[in-house]
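Reading is simple: the token line describes the chain's fold. The lines below illustrate.

. . .
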Amino acid sequence: MTLRDKPDRSRNDPEDGVREIAQPSSSTDEGSLKTQTTLCDLCGAQMIERHCKLICLSCGYQRDCSDP
């Protein structure tokens, strides 16, 4: 085998080692983006969920997640 017979590894062959990577689709799943918003029973502000409690940051009202 002579030097001419060896493949030239110094050049970047566009097909050498290139794999297509699946891109996420541009359309997003609407169900995955929606979050449930709970409003405070006393003042109507948005409540946050921490573990199994709902807490109103506006008035301090707390509700357990098992409450109706």
Remarks:
- The helical segments are 30-33.
- The chain has a mean pLDDT of 73.
